[in-house]
Specification:
seven-stranded antiparallel beta sheet, alpha+beta
Length: 145
């Protein structure tokens, strides 16, 4: 569990149960996460990749914790372009909390150097992602680019 403050924190309320949000977060990535697929057993300590439809890797790392409907924590090494590939991995945490019949979804980036290209890309990217997962879950359609 990480204790230092995250560099980025984005949160959004989604009109769905934590179980539904978890399913979208772990099984429906192509619909909302830049067309990537999460390839993982979700077992703590196991490796994972996010891959594009053509098989290229967008990111890779290790699952730190996976508590269905509550939390997904992973090390995150982006590989989507040459500017971010050589940079150090950081810790990515997705947290889900029931809010009545809805879910508060929070994404946080820890251990991320603010001077890196990775930080410059994932900050605004995470806002897009949580907005897109909300739109996907609530409407069945991704946002338009």
């Amino acid at each position: 569990m990480t204790t230092a403050a995250p560099l980025h924190r984005q949160a959004i309320v989604i009109d769905a149960t934590p179980e539904r949000v978890w399913t979208a977060l772990t099984q429906e990535c192509p619909s909302w996460f830049f067309t990537t697929t999460l390839n993982s057993s979700l077992e703590p300590g196991s490796d994972y990749t996010y891959t594009y439809p053509d098989g290229r890797r967008a990111a890779e790392g290790t699952i730190v914790a996976a508590d269905p409907g509550q939390r997904l924590e992973m090390t995150f090494s982006p590989t989507w372009d040459d500017a971010v590939t050589p940079e150090a991995p950081f810790r990515l945490v997705w947290s889900l909390a029931a809010q009545g019949g809805a879910t508060l979804l929070t994404v946080e980036h820890y251990e991320l150097d603010p001077s890196t290209e990775t930080a410059r890309q994932v900050g605004p990217g995470s806002l897009f992602l949580i907005s897109n997962i909300k739109t996907w879950i609530e409407t069945g359609q991704p946002m338009h680019d």
